[in-house]
């Protein structure tokens, strides 16, 4: 292979690396885009303090903030965090509340929606392996109560079981699928 062909080969490799980096690691935001509103996070903290990590045995230090990561298609943000844990690990209620909805979706698989007593915060649990026997819609649960098990249902990779966990701030009359996503990471890692 001649020198010129080798140089073009290296240029092609460098270009592919740059494209891959931009696709998977860079989120481009227009300069005039509104900044994220920190008020919903503060409202959630004011109403209930720091949340407990929703997977038993996982410490706040083990969490990674994946809230703004692009999904595989790159067309949308994650708007949640993924908590990696062995399949079957206990999933627990992060706060007191009422189970608003138990639902199967193609993307989320087995899901559970827990709503705060004031109906203004919704906690979303997805990719569950199973629910604890007896868990049902309308049931009141306490902070720390075991409600499900970690899995990889829905579009999750079976080789990487995890809990997809999201928090939505909403009005009391909004349906379980409404609300405005806020980053759960600072709520779960906040100093106690």
TrEMBL record:
Q: Which UniProt keywords apply?
A: Hydrolase, Metal-binding, Metalloprotease, Protease, Zinc
Matching SUPFAM superfamilies: Duplicated hybrid motif
Q: In this protein, which residues make up the domain named M23ase beta-sheet core?
A: 77-184
Reported cofactor(s) = Zn(2+)
Report a single Gene Ontology molecular function: metal ion binding
Q: Which domain of life is it from?
A: Bacteria
- For whether the record's keyword set contains Hydrolase, the answer is yes
- Record-linked Pfam families: Peptidase_M23
Key word Metal-binding present? yes
One BP annotation, GO? proteolysis
- PANTHER family named among the record's database cross-references: CELL DIVISION PROTEIN YTFB, PEPTIDASE-RELATED
Task: Indicate what this protein is called per its UniProt record.
Answer: Peptidoglycan LD-endopeptidase LytH
Q: Which organism is it from?
A: Sphingobium xenophagum
Q: What is the lineage of its organism?
A: Bacteria, Pseudomonadati, Pseudomonadota, Alphaproteobacteria, Sphingomonadales
